[in-house]
Amino acid sequence: MQTNLYPLQFNPILKERIWGGEKLKTILNKPIVSPITGESWELSAVEGDCSIVANGDFKGYTLIEIIENHPEELLGTKVFEKFGKQFPLLFKFLDAREDLSIQVHPNDALAQKRHNSFGKTEMWYVMQADPKSRLIVGFKEDSNATEYVEKLEKNELLSILDTKEVQKGDVFFLETGTVHAIGAGLVIAEIQQTSDITYRLFDFNRKDAHGNTRELHVDLALDAINYQRGETQKEYAKFVNQSNTMVDCPYFTTNYIPLQGEMVVNKTEESFTVYMVVDGYFSIDINGLEYNYQTGDTVLVPAALQLFTLSGNASLLEIYIS
């Protein structure tokens, strides 16, 4: 497949959050201006938050405009067949200076019925963790809607939720319906379905600068929650200069590449590939042209670019749809 496309970088879409901080600047080199910046949307086709190309001939174009003109070349034959001209994934970096709210995301069927949206299956890679930082992921034991409501009303929800202390490199896979929260002191790389549908269950009774609490979605969450205990943490291999599988699900595949030197990539034209640089520096060489990246960068390699070389010393997340 011939193409005039090339590896695409996008301007980060920066989001203020009540729980955000400044690590997206100090650790990931993002041009934040607010001391409560919680999210950097790296690659998005969410309505109202569409990524804009930052490099090369397509600089200034939106992701949606490029897909409109080069659907199969960018998305891939298999992805285009399944999703049409929709970009099915959303990529973010998050900085939690404070605890995020406890929340849950609906599955595809419920999200389609209520919001005309995809569901929100997602995964987290821990990029940086302050000592004793933790995540909330699901229930300690199997529960039910009655117990959940009872504990929520008594302000005891945390007593039945599973808390895990985490460190750099930990990976968690959150299927829809998993009750979860990112704890204070963490920087996270997040890969998810294209959806911004979140049901907030509990927000630690905190108030914003105007003394208001944030809206909760207790009733909406009741039939969205999976009350069964599940294992969310994923173990993975770390073979150098190889794609080591972390998560392989119907919505995306994510591999871990510890890059030391060079690695040749030869892939099909079925799917685009995204690289998130979670540590270090690397370059992509395509037909003698070199593109350089550093910690905190995210790059979209169009599906039509099938043969290229990665070189450098970096830890990479490699994402595509299989």
UniProtKB/TrEMBL annotation:
Residues 245-320 form the Mannose-6-phosphate isomerase cupin domain. GO terms for molecular function: isomerase activity. Residues 10-116 form the Phosphomannose isomerase type I catalytic domain. Keywords: Isomerase, Metal-binding, Zinc. SUPFAM superfamilies: RmlC-like cupins. The keyword Zinc applies. Pfam families: MPI_cupin_dom, PMI_typeI_cat. PANTHER family: FRUCTOKINASE, TRANSCRIPTIONAL REPRESSOR MPRA. This is Phosphohexomutase.
